[in-house]
Amino acid sequence: MGVGPWRVLVEGVGSRVWRRWGAVAVVAVFLPPLALLVSGSLHRPGLPPPTTPDLVPAPVSVEGYRLAAELGGLVRATVNSLLVCAVAVPLSVVVASMAGFAMARLPQRVAGWVAALSLVALMVPAVALLVPRFAVFRVAGLTDTLVPLVAPALIAGSPLFPLVYYLAFRAVPGELWEACAMEDLSPLRTWWRVGMPLVRPATAGTAALTFVLTWSNFLDPLVFLYDRDLFTLPLALRSLAALDAADFPVFLAGAVVATVPALVVFVVAQRELKGVSR
Amino acid sequence: MRARALAVAAALVVAGCAGGEDGSATSLLVFGDPHELAAYRSLEAAYEQAHPGADLRLVEASDRKDLIARLSTSIAGGKPPDLFLMNYRFYGQFAAKDAIEPAGPMLTASKTLKADDFYPQALEAFQVRGEQMCMPQNISSLVVYYNKDLFKKYGVAEPRPGWSWDDMVATAIALTRDANGDVVKGVDTDQPGAAPTGPPPAEYGLGVSPELVRLAPFVWSNGGKLFDDDHSPARLALDEPAVEALQDFIDLRGLHGAVPTDQEVESQDDEARFAAGKLGMLMSSRRSTTTFRAVSGFDWDVAALPVHRTPATVLHSDAYCVTRGSSDKAAAWKFVEFALGPEGAKIMAGTGRTVPSNKAVAQSPAFLDPAAKPRSAQVFLDSIPSIRATPTISTWPEIEDVANGILENALYYNKPTAEVVRELDEQTRPLFERASK
User: How far off is chain A from B17, nearest CA to CA, in Å?
Assistant: First the structure.
């Protein structure tokens, strides 16, 4: 079957145009809230909130950021959140990729069962496990520490991530693994030296998702942390949300601080994804 | 190699954070915005200074939902805080779960606190079958905040003590003005068949949330009943005078157009509207005081609620509860004695947010400070004899949620009262049935 002119149009010039307009449409949806967020955070706190959004604050004030740091303990909370992410994200990526790699090397039938079990585990609501988890960490004497926030990384954070790696490693031709075995590469070296460089998009995606899930985790710190010196950013943000309406710039300043790292991570992850597909 | 480095890092985090775990401190779970929490921190500091060796640890939640999530999980998980602060409308579920150590015996044995030190209306709200469960920290009630400058600008008489509901409606109508300052009726253009008769109001006369606790005082004031039985309620069953009060409440929007529409409240809540100087009157509890103290644009004061037949208002009160699972109940009670005694009560009164439950402190300048707004703070104390409380039911928070949704529709969409009464009964009955007896 020949390639029709329409197809050429769509795949050639057309696809570029479509892609550009698609990007514009996405930006048009997501940019205004961000712009309002930033402009709102630069208003002067203590004034009644405007009923219609005004994009250019007059006068521009960073008082909101100062108060957010002072009232919400935002600096300490950011450090705590970064600490948790710095440990939890790499740890869960390592665990997820190892598990996914192992699954890909299992016989098809067994791997199928493991995948099915993972899907079942995925359906268990996190809230249902909250009280048992609290009891476990209480017995271990680990409540009111950051450990319960990091611990899920030891099982990859979510059953979803090993599955992502499983699919990525399964797409690699089996001959490659056989070749590695012939070269006497240990499974660990095969995973690290050969496997991981081949699945960089999966790593970028998993890392970005794990980061966002860990960074925005509200329920776990709410239940496990008592000491305000250990509070993470979502808890600090929540306390700023309780401020009076007139202090909305303070809350929005906190929201900017919480949003920026997530944006940075997505930009980096996207470059990683693009770099591979080129 | 890298994996090993990570393991080391994880171990360091464990070691670094495990220090916070000790059983000696008394933990107190509270919620509030950052300013309110700062007040609790100064209470903590004053307590530790007054009692060398005592160690109080605040566990801070930002709102009631967060506090309940923390509290429920830690009780279920076997390690509750020693103390928590909770509104009487929300503590029923914990009393029902037997998670609270009754305060009664500790109060009887106390050398520093006596039941007579407190307003009985606040104490009674925290009693289950005659037993004192928790110790009330404050006794606030619903009052009318009003913008004195708007009253002066339009030559409207300020609320007098004992003013009637009709006086209040007339005042609200007279304060609902368009941008030119002319009296106008607010029309909700989203209603079918509604056509504006003039420019939209720039200022509204009154703000009141369509909530069960806001409606209740007017039902009571009209001699009505909300429940089939006030002592052991099994249903929301509004009687004739209650339906009258409900109709008057709904008319505020549908007939008089003197309260903001649904959309207007969504875009700017009543408290923010009042703070912006665009609301003549606002029905709220003592909580709003700190917000309005920060307002500099106009003068304001408080007045008692308007009356249908007899004065009535609704209690807002929080109490310190010692948990059943506390490892050191004596230490927890020692803090309660401090916090509710003259010294602690003065610190909390200083925030302006609460009406002290301690009679002596409430009647002292710590609360009735003539230099601080509202000048008529005495209104809060004068309302106390007519205060009534909602019943203690373990499912009360859910009952309120459901009822508030129905009342919201009723006010903003002018629902017939018969339908509202039927919906209130039908939709809350399963919640009453589920309540533990």
Answer: 5
Q: Is the pLDDT of residue A252 over 70?
A: yes
In sign, the C-alpha dihedral spanning B52, B55, B60, B66 is negative
- ipTM, two decimals, is 0.78
Burial of A33 per CB tally in 10 Å (0-12, 13-18, 19+): exposed
**CB contact (8 A) between residue B34 and residue A142:** no
What band does B230 get if pLDDT is binned at 50, 70 and 90?
confident
List of chain B residues whose C-beta atoms are within 8 Å of the C-beta of residue A244:
33, 271, 275, 291, 294
Q: What is the pLDDT of residues B319-338, one digit of tens each?
A: 999 999 999 999 999 999 99
- What share of chain B has pLDDT > 70, as a percent? 93
A135 touches chain B (CB under 8 A): yes
Residue B236 C-alpha, separation from nearest chain A C-alpha, in angstroms: 32
pLDDT given at position A12: 59
Residue B3 with chain A: CB contacts under 8 Å: 94
* Mean pLDDT (whole number) for A126-147: 91
Assign B240 a pLDDT band (cuts: 50, 70, 90).
Answer: very high
Residue B8 pLDDT:
45
Question: pTM above the 0.90 mark?
Answer: no
Residues of B in contact with A49 (CB under 8 A): 268, 272
From the list B10, B35, B269, the residue facing A91 with the nearest CB is: B10
Would you call B58 helix, strand, or coil by DSSP? strand
For residue A270, give Cα distances in angstroms to A112, A209, A215.
Answer: 30, 12, 18
**Which residues of chain B have a CB within 8 Å of the CB of A141?**
18, 21
